[in-house]
Every structure is written in C-alpha cells, then in structure tokens.
Design a protein that fits this description.
alpha/beta; three-stranded antiparallel β-sheet; single chain; 11 strands
C-alpha cells in the first residue's frame, strides 16, 4: 500500500464483512467536502480493507454525527444552474450530458428496456434520475424513495411519477422491474 498507515484497527470492513480497515492517519488533518460540495471541517477517519481493498470510512458514532449534521442542512446541486445535476462528458465525443442521462443511456444500450414497467429510484433526491428515465422510457410507472424528502412538489411534476416513498426501503411493499441507486451506497452503513 502507498503511504504510511497504522496497524490494522479493530474496525471491520462494512463492504466485504471479512476484513479490517487499516486507517490512514493523515486523514484527521485533511479538510473535507460534504457530498453536496460544501467545505467540511478537518477530521474523520478513512481506511483501506486488507481483504477486499475497499476504501471506506468506519461507520462509527463520529461518522453518524457528521452524517446527521450534513443532512440537517443538505443542499443538493446548489452549485448548478437551477439546481440541475452536474454534467459528465462522453469520452468518445466530448459531449456533455447530465450524469443520469448518460448512465441510463449506457444501461439501455446494454439491455434494451421493455415498453412498460415499474422503476424505483432509491435516494431520488431532486428527481434527476427519475426525470432522465421518464424521457428514456415514457411508458413506465416511476417511483422514488427518499428518506430525506425536501421537495415533493418538484418531484410530482415528473412525467409518469406515481409515488415517492419517504420511509425506509424495508417498509415499501411493492415490486419493481428496474431499480436505480445513484450516489447511494456511500450513505449506507452496511451495504452488503
């Protein structure tokens, strides 16, 4: 491994479940950026799993406190015009598109979508992925899941949207043909 690290901690890897995280001691002095691109105070912990190589933050009380503080005042896409998601660039053409549009084009290119179906976007936020999917598959019924729901009115304007669930996934009693989860796993304590 590059760079100095401490001896293995007793912190288990929450990605593979079998390894332990080797902590990066310099992390405590680095400034950080919250997932809504706001500067965040220095601190925190970061490790590398000796078994699977995942880079992960220990999901401890300090991590939970940071997450609560960040999401108490979360402002998704506040740096973009009109709150739109950031563009990504196609490496072949150089064309910029919203990230969700590009992701869904790649998915649909690998496995064509049927004319109708039920789609759930987990962590739907402001609806960027739902909006992109509505344009790609206009015959589908769309659903969102967002425990930190802030703007239900904007989501309700998405064509084909049937419901937004503002409760834990385990409490959603429904089936879906396509489920997306963009920028979700980093918010899940035990992703496996």
């Amino acid at each position: 491994a590059a760079g100095p690290m401490t001896m293995p901690s007793k912190i288990g890897c929450h990605v593979c479940g079998t390894g332990v995280l080797v902590l990066v001691p310099e992390m405590a002095s680095f400034g950080r950026v919250a997932s809504d691109c706001r500067p965040w105070q220095a601190g925190g912990a970061l490790g590398v799993c000796r078994s699977c190589g995942a880079v992960a933050k220990p999901t401890d009380d300090a991590w939970r406190a940071d997450a609560r503080a960040i999401y108490a005042d979360y402002d998704l896409y506040h740096q973009s015009p009109e709150g739109g998601e950031q563009p990504v660039f196609d490496h072949k053409t150089g064309t910029a598109q919203p990230r969700s549009v590009r992701i869904l084009e790649v998915v649909a290119g690998a496995e064509p979508l049927p004319e109708t179906g039920r789609m759930l976007d987990v962590g739907c936020g402001t609806g960027a992925t739902l909006t992109a999917f509505a344009a790609l598959a206009p015959g589908w019924d769309l659903f969102g899941a967002e425990e930190n729901l802030k703007d239900a009115e904007s989501l309700a304007r998405i064509p084909g949207l049937r419901e937004v669930f503002d409760r834990p996934l385990r409490d959603i009693d429904a089936t879906f043909d396509f489920i997306s989860a963009v920028h979700v796993l980093e918010h899940v304590e035990n992703p496996a």
